[in-house]
Write a structure and sequence with these properties.
Layout: E1 4-9, H1 16-25, E2 29-34, H2 35-39, E3 50-53, H3 67-86, E4 90-94, H4 96-104, E5 119-122, E6 130-138, E7 152-159, E8 163-166, H5 169-177, E9 181-186, E10 206-210, E11 216-219, H6 247-260
Parallel strand pairs: 1-2, 1-3, 3-4, 4-11
Antiparallel strand pairs: 5-8, 6-7, 6-9, 9-10, 10-11
Helix pairs in contact: 3-4
Length: 261
């Protein structure tokens, strides 16, 4: 079975083509679907195995990054999304997609509640847009389906509102206890470090989290932007594999879906 992936597009989402390319390379059948096609019912989410919310600037980041998109999905498609999750399917949100996911409550979804907001992503401590490459290290015990076998990874970030914050200290403790922190920003030696290694000031250097099942995943860096050797900033100076490191995240999702759905 070839997993089918719905790549959401429209209203300022602008990394959908790269995200489709990534899933296609990983062996999926990916389709770019405009949000309005889901809203009017001409496309059914249930026909797919993976939902991808790509990066971009949906609705111009009005109110807050991802907030309008979050409300559009939550209050119009919430039941479909909940059924999608209950059916054991996968969701990934990248950058703006991650911002939307936390603001509609899809993450961290303590106790399986995918509607309550406990965390957010807000303005970078630097007060400006950050466009750089970052090192990340996976957290021991992470159950995330998308990151199986990945110990560390180097990916680009490009965002103005990527600072991960929690509602209260108990939320951070639950994230740790449940092994829901997937990636943390580190320096090139793998050690937690401040700016610019942590590009936004995220608490506990958090770059990515998942829900308790490991099947719903959000991250600020862009794995779809490192599919090929030539995407790497030092590709002319270093001997690098032909494949970029980001492909592993998409391949994990496709393989899991093919085996389990």
């Amino acid at each position: 079975m070839t997993p089918k992936v719905l790549i959401l597009t429209g209203y300022g989402i602008n990394c959908d083509i790269e995200t489709k390319h990534a899933f296609d390379l990983a062996g999926a059948q990916a389709e770019r679907i405009h949000l309005t096609d889901l809203l009017d019912g001409s496309v059914k989410l249930s026909d797919y195995h993976i939902l991808a919310l790509p990066g971009g600037f949906s609705f111009g980041d009005d109110i807050a990054s991802g907030k309008v998109l979050a409300n559009m999905i939550k209050y119009n498609l919430g039941e479909q999304v909940q059924e999608f999750i209950e059916d054991g399917k996968l969701i990934i949100g990248i950058c703006n997609g991650f911002q939307a996911m936390v603001k509609m409550g899809l993450l961290p979804a303590f106790g399986g509640d995918h509607s309550r907001q406990d965390v957010t992503l807000t303005f970078n401590d630097s007060g400006r847009f950050e466009n750089r490459w970052v090192h990340m290290k996976s957290s021991p015990g992470s159950k995330c389906v998308f990151t199986r076998g990945i110990e560390s990874i180097y990916l680009p970030v490009r965002h103005g509102e990527g600072k991960f914050v929690v509602k209260d200290p108990h939320v951070l403790e639950k994230l740790k206890k449940n092994h829901q922190i997937v990636f943390r920003y580190v320096d090139k030696d793998g050690n937690p470090a401040g700016y610019p290694h942590n590009p936004n000031g995220s608490i506990d250097n958090i770059a990515a989290i998942c829900d308790e099942t490991g099947r719903v995943f959000g991250l600020m860096p862009h794995p779809e932007a490192f599919m090929h050797r030539t995407n790497h900033p030092a590709w002319t100076r270093e001997e690098l594999p032909e494949e970029g490191a980001g492909i592993a995240i998409f391949r994990n999702a496709v393989e899991y879906s093919a085996e389990n759905l």
